[in-house]
Amino acid sequence: MIVVPDDYPSVFEGSIAHERARALGEVRVHTGRGAEDEAELARRIGNAAIAVNIRAHARFTEAVFRACPELKMISIWGTGTDNIDLAAAARRGVTVCNTPGVNAYAVAEHAIALMLAVARRIPQIDREMRGGAWPRNMLAQLHGKTLAVFGSGAIGARVAQLARGFGMEVLAWSARGDTPAAKDDYLSRADFVTLHLRLVPETRGFIGNREFALMKPEAYLINTSRGPLVDRDALLGALGSRRIAGAGLDVFHDEPLKPGDPLRGLANTVLTPHNAGQTPEVRRDGLLLAIENVERFLSGRPINVVRA
Q: pTM to 2 decimals?
């Protein structure tokens, strides 16, 4: 049996990928809230052999794996794996696959859009003009500026390519091959910093007070990866004190943002609701690849396997 325990908000049910999954056997789809609860997630999975993970709020913990001994494979719609205890999956013999690269173009475009929006103050100027003003702010351009790209996977590489098209100098840093000294050097030289790293214990709090102190006061931070890559208190402090010029954020520590979140009140931010990859093309191709992962696993030829 294949189970989709967390199709909320629903994108899978009734899709082409759903029809393709039905050809593999019984498919059970849960479209209501509740998968964020560990016990409820385990109940929904039950005795299924395969789970297709749609939303990051469904957390596959040691307890979930223990409660679902028949589970053999998880296919993630997306690239992030921070909601899955990969070590526990390995101990239980559960294969975890994701859909890398599918959203690279869309997320990279969104990262560039956030750079432009925050540097040129587009949301703020739009609001002021709708209120009757004619603001003549001094703006920042991308051409001739330096961009530090942290994370050299498919998304980071595409961002770098687009940035060069704007005439930016690109400094690309990889967690696998580059040194902390290079990180510090790039932070101190960059006019824009964009994050495209996996959230793992080593990258949690990748940007904190020390890193903000290295950045130029006119620099901008862009994050379309995961909120906890940036220390929340340090971020609020850097933005509130104008230690950096601003930030374009698509991801947050708490999602959705709570009504009183201080980020909502900061004029030097542009905020979007973790939707950088929300295009029809990404949805279609990503869901189909998630099911292809299942097909390949069942045929004994797994692809896109994520290692702990």
A: 0.91
- Closest residue by Cα to residue 208 from 225, 183, 191, 190: 183
Domain boundaries of the chain, sorted by first residue: 2-102+279-298, 104-271
- From the list 19, 26, 218, 255, the catalytic residue is 255
Specify the CATH number for 2-102+279-298; select among 3.40.220.10, 1.10.10.10, 3.40.50.300, 3.40.50.720: 3.40.50.720
pLDDT in tens, 232-260: 999 999 999 999 999 999 999 999 999 99
Sheet holding 95-97, edge to edge: 27-29, 2-4, 50-53, 73-76, 95-97
Please identify which of the residues 59, 196, 226, 283 carries the catalytic annotation: 226
CB 235 within 8 A of CB 247: yes
30 is catalytic: no
2-102+279-298 and 104-271 agree in CATH topology: yes
Question: How many Å apart are CA 187 and CA 226, to the nearest integer?
Answer: 19
